[in-house]
Amino acid sequence: MEEKLAKHYTAFETILEKAKSDFDLKWTKKMVPNAAFKDFVLKKTLGTGSFGRVVLAEHDKTKTPYAIKIMEKAHIVKMKQVAHTISEIKVLDCVKFEFIVGLEFYFKDNVYIFLVMRFFNGGEMFSHLRTLKKFDEPLSKFYASQVIMAFEYLHYLGLIYRDLKPENILIDHVGYIKMTDLGFCKKIDSSRTYTLCGTPEYLAPEIILSQGYSKSVDWWALGVLIFEMCAGYPPFFARDPMRVYEKIVSGRFSCPSHFTRSLRGLLGKILQVDRSKRFGNLKDGTKDIKGHDWFKEVDWDSILNRKFKPSYVPRISDPIDTSNFDSYEEEKLRVAPKEEYPNEFKDIVVQTSLPT
Prior knowledge:
34% of the residues lie in helices and 13% in strands. The strands form 3 sheets. The chain has a 5-stranded antiparallel β-sheet. Strands 6-9 form a two-stranded antiparallel sheet. A two-stranded antiparallel ribbon has the order 7-8. The protein has helices at residues 2-27, 73-78, 82-94, 125-132, 137-156, 205-208, 216-231, 241-250, 261-270, 287-290, 300-304; strands spanning 40-49, 52-59, 65-72, 105-108, 112-118, 159-160, 169-171, 177-179, 186-187. The protein is of the alpha+beta class. The radius of gyration is 21 Å and the shape is globular. It has 2 domains: 31-121 and 317-356, Phosphorylase Kinase, domain 1 (2-Layer Sandwich); 125-304, Transferase(Phosphotransferase) domain 1 (Transferase(Phosphotransferase), domain 1, Orthogonal Bundle), CATH 1.10.510.10. The protein contains 11 helices and 9 strands. Residues 296-356 form the AGC-kinase C-terminal domain. It catalyses: L-seryl-[protein] + ATP = O-phospho-L-seryl-[protein] + ADP + H(+); L-threonyl-[protein] + ATP = O-phospho-L-threonyl-[protein] + ADP + H(+). ATP binds at residue 69. Its EC number is 2.7.11.11. Belongs to the protein kinase superfamily.
């Protein structure tokens, strides 16, 4: 087992080195919008949030389905998220990994910013977890292994993710995951950041305590996700967010009786308030996690190469089946005779305006 894991690390390191070279090259290049609104036909809203909405669309010529994140510039400016949004586009445009949603096209019109990504019709992990109540440990392990490799990829590039949760994990048509929403993703390399952001139940203690943090917060969030997948609820929860924060900082949580001993042991090592003892953040990095007893049966290369057959696959009837997504009331997009906030978004060239 140790020999097989060592071979995996050798091969994966080569993949990461090539990925970083590609990322660094693209990171230095100027962003150039590569599509226009007239290229797509909007179909149905897939999700909404403080950012705006995600809409299923088809490419007018190829008929390829896409998910388009539509963000209103006025809202971005009002929320003081201009730099944040530009950074999200830059990161999405530069990352390319099997278990992370990347950017296919992006553009703006007079009112909105459009980010076009591949459509994964299995829906959000959150929906399936809500339906099944909880995942068994083998399925949770399968999902967690992909998150781990996605984090290894991002961290190798000098990025931290900061927004892991079931709502930000999509399932594709064969059951593999795609981490989405890189809005909180930040390039920090070897430095620290102090921004308070993320979902309360998934925040690491160092974020809450404003101690300055780096990649350690993603490993804490992994522990929260593994717990929630296996239990059906997060390890730290309360109606009042401040009470949630108190529980997180204390680091005390209780595992359900059905958790195996190896799972309890792993969670105790990852959900560790002391960063100097937290798995993923020690000198051996992810080797401590991947080599843990709970992951001993995982064939990392098989999963990375999508050769492992998952035990659960969403029901999908066709490429544009949206049955795995909730329904939302549709809203007509706003139009404007001239470009709004041209200076704030001058780095993104206007391609076209919405048809009136």
